[in-house]
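User: Fold both of these, please.

Assistant: Here is the first one.
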Amino acid sequence: MSASETLVRPLSGRVRTHVMELLRLAAPVIVSRAGLMVMMAVDTAIVGRFSAHELALFSLAHLPNNVMIGTGVGLLLGTVAMTAHALGAGEDRECGRVLRRSLPYALALGLVMAVVSLFGEPLLILSGQAPELAAGGGTVMAVLGVGMPGMMLYVAAGFFLEGLKRPLPVMVAMIGGNLLNGLLAYLLVWGAFGLPGMGAVGSAIATSTVRWAMGLGLLVYIWRMPDHARWGIHHNTRKGWRAWARQRTLGYAAGLSIFVESTAFAVLGFIAGMLSPLALGAYMVGLNLIAVPFMAAVGLGSATAVRVGVAYGRRDAREMALAGWTGLGVTSAILALVGVAYRWLPEAAAGIYTNDPELLERVVPLVAFGAWILVADGGQAVMGNALRGRNDAWVPTVLHFVSYAVIMIPVSAWLTLGLGRAELGLFEGILVASVVSVLILSARFAWLGRRAGF
């Protein structure tokens, strides 16, 4: 849609177009993003029903693991933004160049994460965990590290396809990965075919295997796309490190932003672990129940970034603004519906993960309270993506740091340790930070929209 067409079309028609295009792009992205959390949720349920102790080891290992994955996803976000910009500008071959720059970068990131994962035990001890829990969690973390390079390749390939407005293959890969993971996790956690039940380690083996399968599967698909010549998939980039500085810069900013946010959530998990293994298990289950529907916000945020990015490539300020606000409105409406369900049926949601009466008693209040978090947390995710879609890299990072490092950690620690509100205090701190984040990110997007002019 050109800028001149934007001026003559009525607002209602433009909003309808944005909503339909947003949902079309977001639906497979939501499935693929939610698939990551569903995979973890299935593992959490399988391990939690196997043993509460193994659930504590599983939870500890995934705290730093999730920080690394989130950081890697952020560092690679330049892939989807620059692909969308090139697509909007009609520079088809540049899309392929973006991919070819991203893949070795993704592999290197994954290898670094694999090495870091070998030092899980000392890292967990430094976080204040008991030595026996740190030893078991460190073993699980090392096994998860094996799958990190495959995971990063999957992320880079998926972002490229989403930037091309082709998220369906990413969704198919995630659905297949979840089916394979569920089968492998059940067999390896509980034991089958003569193998002993391996608990959390078995779950980690399944996860690493599936991550490699998904990453390699998407690469094969991209390499064999019928129109690969249009995008220059098989052509060498032939440009040096400086040629893709903007792509990396977008990734640096997003990577730091997600690192700050995910580290802040990991710190809350470590605080829960210092309270008791039961508090840690309750925190992780409650967080999982927020994270699964939150992936709808991540998917809608990614689609919003593409819509804003394409409008940015066309230098269309009005459509950039409309794409961003439409993304926020649709996301808020969807997550509000999920929040109502959580407020009505917290016991049913918590019962998916555990049948332990003590754990259930502590999880149910978190689920009910999590309904308030969903809308605010989802909104800030969408607005952060909208800002990056319009090439605003570092300001969202600073705003995330303020919300989650400066506000959430001390507020949560004060509520939990100072006022004795246990793991519920952690969730109350998350709500405060999420509300602050969505307000300041929205204000930034509105301000940029008022001063935009091409």
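And the second sequence with its predicted structure:
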Amino acid sequence: MSTANASFPPDTVLTGLAPVIAPHTRLVVLGSFPGAMSLQMQQYYAHPRNQFWTILAALWGVDLPSMPYAQRLDEIRARGLGLWDVYATCRREGSLDTSIEDARPNDLASLKRLAPRLQAVAHNGGESAKFMRHTLALGVPVVRLPSTSPANASWSFERKLAAWRAVFVEHAIA
């Protein structure tokens, strides 16, 4: 199976990635569920057209896309940023959020325990934002950011970057 079009049989129950959260994490970005390539590579936002790492690189002036994945994770942890997804498991053919079926959510209430200095939660896209009522219960500000997915072609890179910058600056992550 090539990493360019990694896929799993439709009846397969897929398991997401572990949270990337440190005790000093101040902002957690929640995606929906890793795409097929991310699952295969066991890396958040592994698809080369996903703009997540490119947006962070522009915000921080650090060439994250060229770094080894472990080094990227070290960089985001050091800056107080955490990553996770709203779904722990699901069935899905391909990578589109619209194809997610039989999803089981992650224990989002555990974010306060995992990140005792948590100041805010940012949902990366609409599918993730469906869980805003759960994250609002954490008692911190919750925002919806435009999806960094290549499927979100209606937003230009510059427009996404501006939206992400505003949230990162507000929470002293940029």
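Residues 14-170 form a domain with the Uracil-DNA Glycosylase, subunit E fold (CATH 3.40.470.10).
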